[in-house]
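User: Run a structure prediction on this.
Assistant: Running it now.
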Amino acid sequence: GGRIVRNDLEIFLNKSSTGHDNLQTFTQDYEKNNSETTEASFGSGEDAELTFSGRKFDSVAMSKIRKIIAKRLTNSKQTIPHFYLRRTINVQKLLNLRSDINNIYGADGIKISINDFIIKACSKALQEHPNCNLIWANDKLLRLHPSDIAVAVSIEDGLVTPVLRDVELKSLKQIHLEMKEFVKKAKNKSLLPHEYTGASFAISNLGMMGIENFDAVINPPQSSILAVGACVKKPIAVSKKIKLRTVMSVTLSVDHRVIDGAVGANFLETIVKYLEEPMTLII
């Protein structure tokens, strides 16, 4: 496991009485062996296959989209100084309002999702916090006027992020229908380049998979991404009493080159405000 044990020292001492030459040889051998182990573990595909040559495995070729994801997100974690802001949101009013809306739209086959509310809340928050609606452009920052929001959609061989544009001007119904169409195109791999580029902000929701909280990776050139967890029932304080309420955990990943801590915190506070008082999203 990389440790120097007594047997190593005895072998080294018994090799020669010259000491210095032995130490140099021992060091060279150790560095060579350590280098080979490291390369086999983390180097090329051939190195990895050699390491696991004694085990049964299938060699799975990476799709083009998986290669792009790997390259972009590795670059993101290496070059973007992420920091994370976390909040727990009481979504009881949101769930009640969503139920009422879906009772109205039910005959039309429309079912507004929690994600539709989140997209709308983030669009309004971006309008209130223009210093969070930014794009990193190396020697300058671009401040966008509209709320263009990328929404992560899982497909068979990766992840795509279609962009809803001018979301601040759209109703929950419009957001729902547009997102539904984007998901369909994503699954069919028919999204056009202009349909998944150009946002300053993104949303990734794993709540429907039971994940309560997680940290999402920023997809450059966007400056932040909201990770949304599952809705769960928890006891919380309401008017000096403990009551069971449905809450949702969210984490905002932020590019510190673009957005400072207090600015990001105020932005997230506004998102929380809209989701805890969801009537403000439809009036």
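The first helix runs from residue 6 to 15.
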